[in-house]
Amino acid sequence: MKMKMRMMKGFGLLLWIQLELLLWVRESYTADQCSWRGSGLSQLQGSVEQVFLRCAEGSVEWLYPSGALRLSLSPRPSWAGLGPGVSSSSTPASICVKAEPQWSGAQLYLERDGVLELLVGDVSGHTHTRCFSFTPGERPALFLQATPHQDISRRIAAFRYELRGERRERLSDNSVHTDPISTEGACRPCNDTEMLMAVCTSDFVVRGNIRAVETDSDLRAAVIKVSATRVYRQKFALFSSTGRLTHSGEIRTLLSCGVRTGSGSFLFTGHVHFGEAWLGCAPRYKDFLRVYEHAKQKLQIPCTLDTH
């Protein structure tokens, strides 16, 4: 009888251990497979937890870093819609990561072909965006390694990632670079077709004036201070209300584009990267209106915009 009781207790303990392991494995997955949040306190000693990320953008937040995480970046087979400029399975792309300002307690590496390359060290205050290119079929991964600390109670390793279309010339050496955004064609004026499509596909579409232009030295970018008289669309709260008819916001572009303060009304369009607006097409509003009305008469507008 005692032997039977011991066997039942042993079976119960084994079942409890299996349940704990099952719960631990589930922590590696999220409902949307875009973002992950977890704690190093729940990991087994010396373990490497596998995390799968399958979206165009998301975030990782690792509380009390301990052990290591291996983050597999496996975008879904359907490339269309995964990110600006990503249109087909033959288009090279890049993934960019940006550590949150409170980053501490871990180091972030790019893992490619069994080789680790440091992206972010264990130092808080990182502001640079790190990008690396890859081609369809390649399976890059990120390796997050906790660094030893006596007190991990206030340490958080958190970053955001984005999959971007590769508009630049392909990087033949697959090197890691710190460019904030693809540079090829960034300063070129949009043609009529691009102008009309930008209204349909951009993360933000606003009409307004340039109040000032400042410099973001960390991103090597120009910051355009915009006073918007009409917000047609915006992803996130990029332009906040400053009155009954006006909104205020910032749009970034490359310093090399030489943007200057000037008079006149513009139609600003573009995409959001890590919560910041980056400029796409920005024609003068009167020029856009001329192109739009001409295309409308010929029934060739890809989408409508209330111009009244």
UniProtKB/TrEMBL annotation:
Under the GO molecular function aspect, what terms does this record hold? hormone activity
One GO term (biological process): positive regulation of axonogenesis
Signal peptide positions (record):
1-30
Instruction: Tell me where in or outside the cell this protein is found.
Output: Secreted
Can you supply one Gene Ontology CC term for this chain's record? extracellular space
Q: Which UniProt keyword terms apply here?
A: Disulfide bond, Secreted, Signal
Gene3D superfamilies on file: 2.40.50.120
State the family it belongs to.
Belongs to the meteorin family.
Q: What is this protein called?
A: Meteorin, glial cell differentiation regulator
